[in-house]
Amino acid sequence: MNNRAIFYSDGSFSCDFNGAKDFLCHTGLSLDSNKKDAQVGPIYADFKFVKKYFSKIDYSYVGAYGWTKNPLVEFYIIDSWIGSDLKDWISSRRVGNIDIHGSTYTVYENVRNGTSINGPAVFKQYFSVRTSSRDCGSIDITAHFQQWEKFGLPIGNLHEVKIFSEISSSNRDAIIKDTKNK
C-alpha cells in the first residue's frame, strides 16, 4: 500500500493513491467556529483534477467539503466524480436545483447519526452535486451557502472549508494523481 499527500506552498496539493480501500485528501481553511460565511468574505476553491493509471475504481469525488456549528452541518459540493451513482452514496432528500455561474447543481439534504466534529452526534448534511462532472474549474462556495439558505438550509458558524478528493477501489490497485489550487 502506497498512499501519500504532498502539500505545496501555493495552496495546491497532490494525492497519490495505490492500494487502499478508501483514501481522502483535503486542504483548506480551519476556522474558529465563531463567524458566519458573510463575516469571512467570499470563499472560492480552484481545482484541477489530473487522473493517471485509473483501473478498477469504485468511486472518486472531488469538490469542497466542510463543517458548520450552530447548527451542526457537514457539507459537500461535488464538482467531479467517477464511478458509483452519487444518489446511492448521498441517500438523501432531494431539495431542488440551483444555478451557480451557469452550472446546475442538484441540492440534497440528509440527516445522519455518526461521527462529527463534536464526536458522536445526529447532524445534517448538505450536498450540491454538479449535474455534469468536470475536471477543473472554480467553486464559488459562498454562492452555494447563499443558495442553500434560500432553500431553508441554514449555514452556521464556519468550522472548516476544504477542497477534497476521495477515492475507493474494492480491488485496491488504483492510482490517482490529484492536483488542486486554492
From TrEMBL:
Protein's pathway: Glycan degradation; xylan degradation
Catalysed transformations (reactions): Endohydrolysis of (1->4)-beta-D-xylosidic linkages in xylans
One example of a Gene Ontology biological process annotation: xylan catabolic process
Top-level EC class as recorded in UniProt: hydrolase
Thylakoid as UniProt keyword: no
GO molecular function, one term: endo-1,4-beta-xylanase activity
Keyword flag ATP-binding: no
InterPro entries from the UniProt entry: ConA-like_dom_sf, GH11/12, GH11_AS_1, GH11_dom, Glyco_hydro_11
Active site: 74, 166
Domain GH11 residues, every copy: 1-179
Organism: Anaeromyces robustus
Organism classification: Eukaryota, Fungi, Fungi incertae sedis, Chytridiomycota, Chytridiomycota incertae sedis
A Pfam entry, by short name: Glyco_hydro_11
Family: Belongs to the glycosyl hydrolase 11 (cellulase G) family.
UniProt-listed Enzyme Commission number(s): 3.2.1.8
The protein's name: Endo-1,4-beta-xylanase
Keywords, comma-separated and alphabetical: Carbohydrate metabolism, Glycosidase, Hydrolase, Lectin, Polysaccharide degradation, Signal, Xylan degradation
